[in-house]
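To illustrate the input format used throughout this study, we show a single complete record. The first block contains the structure-token representation of the backbone; no residue identities are included at this stage. The design step must infer an amino acid for every position from geometry alone.
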């Protein structure tokens, strides 16, 4: 191979930056011909720039990955908060609906119980009136019985006096009169 002079530029083959291993091997000694010191300096400088560029690319990709991770974390945090708020709202709606249903059912039951209490009070008043009527009738019957008994005693005494006056002696059993006491 011929040696090139210092004024010539070294042309690099087209390369893909992701194939940096092959490129680095190219710069690190796989050249088969002897290079002059200036060319070696250029190659070393290019090699160092390429290494720096690749490190920067790696650092840049790392920053991009970190930025993407922060964005994903922020998105997940926002979505989690939104989901929590939606869930809280739905829970509140459900609780409100359940409470309204319970309130409606309790109100219905209380109205039924109020009606039952009203009916029971009316029945109790009917029974109180019936007891008062029975008590009044009892007192009336007791007074009638007492008056009838008094009339029997009076008639019996009058009959015995009349018989004694007439001189008729009739053996009549002694009638005991039981007087009913007012209660």
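Output of the design step:
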């Amino acid at each position: 191979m011929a040696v090139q002079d210092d004024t010539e530029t070294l042309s690099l083959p087209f390369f893909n930056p992701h194939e940096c291993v092959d490129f680095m091997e190219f710069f690190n000694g796989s050249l088969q011909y002897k290079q002059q010191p200036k060319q070696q300096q250029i190659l070393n400088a290019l090699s160092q720039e390429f290494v720096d560029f690749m490190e920067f690319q790696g650092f840049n990709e790392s920053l991009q990955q970190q930025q993407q991770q922060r964005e994903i974390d922020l998105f997940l945090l926002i979505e989690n908060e939104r989901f929590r708020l939606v869930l809280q709202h739905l829970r509140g709606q459900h609780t409100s609906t359940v409470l309204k249903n319970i309130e409606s059912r309790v109100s219905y039951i209380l109205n039924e119980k109020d009606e039952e209490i009203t009916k029971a009070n009316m029945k109790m008043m009917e029974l109180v009136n019936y007891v008062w009527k029975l008590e009044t009738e009892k007192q009336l019957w007791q007074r009638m019985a007492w008056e009838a008994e008094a009339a029997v005693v009076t008639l019996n005494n009058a009959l015995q006096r009349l018989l004694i006056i007439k001189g008729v002696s009739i053996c009549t059993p002694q009638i005991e009169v039981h007087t009913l006491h007012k209660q």
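Structural context for interpreting the output: The CA atoms of residues 114 and 120 lie 10 Å apart. Helices lie at 20-27, 37-166.
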